[in-house]
Amino acid sequence: MPSSPRVQKEVILQTAFEMIKRDGYASINIKTVAKELGCSTQPISRQFGTMDGFRRELLGYCVEQLKTFFSTEGEFASDIVSGIAKGYISLAFDCPNLYRYLYMSAHDGEQMGELVRTLRSEKYHMVVERLMKEHNMPETYVKEYMETMNYYVHGIASYVAGGYIKESKQEIMDRVQTVSDILLKNRKAM
């Protein structure tokens, strides 16, 4: 029976996750993570095999940790959209290195930004249906609103994570809410 690794997989992933938040993804390799953990590279290699295996599991771990930034609750569907938008803005302000890694980098040969499409909320269809009812809009308008908000929020968050916007988090969140309200109002008027 093989001996159990001295450093558990969860600890390795959490350490690498914290390193990404602090120093960015470029700081991650088996040697730097081992140094951070105060161990040899052997426990990491034993747990993940290759660096590619480590990268795949680390990405999955980061995606799971990402869920803590988002609220998908609200009385109205537009509250849910706002909660998700505010989660992206908070992530960009509070953890810009993590935002850049998840949303501005290619992963395992995927095109830049592919992760944006793969992380779409499980509640997407429910939100679309509720927006249609709450705002008396056809599905095509609601989906266009959702897509426009997605582009707008990710654009703003990318500027924030890149250090190009100097407004406060609250000012940006207020701006996002205003744009959301305008888009919904304009769609209802059509």
State the helix count.
10
N-to-C series of helices and strands: HHHHHHHHHH
Summed over residues and divided by their number, the pLDDT gives a mean of 86
* Inertia-based shape: elongated
Helix-and-strand structural type: mainly alpha
Overall tally of structural domains: 2
Summarize the structure.
The chain is an all-alpha fold and 190 residues long. It has 10 helices and no strands.
Q: How does this structure look, described?
A:
The protein is mostly helical and 190 residues long. The mean pLDDT is 86. It has ten helices and no strands. The N and C termini lie far apart (69 Å). It has two domains: 9-64, Arc Repressor Mutant, subunit A; 70-189.
Question: How would you summarize the topology of this molecule?
Answer:
Elements (H helix, E strand, L loop, with lengths): L8 H15 L6 H8 L4 H7 L2 H16 L10 H18 L1 H8 L10 H5 L5 H12 L3 H23 L7 H21 L1
Helix pairs in contact: 1-2, 1-4, 1-6, 3-4, 5-6, 5-8, 5-9, 5-10, 6-9, 8-9, 9-10
Features:
190 residues, mainly alpha, Arc Repressor Mutant, subunit A, 2 domains, 70% helix, elongated
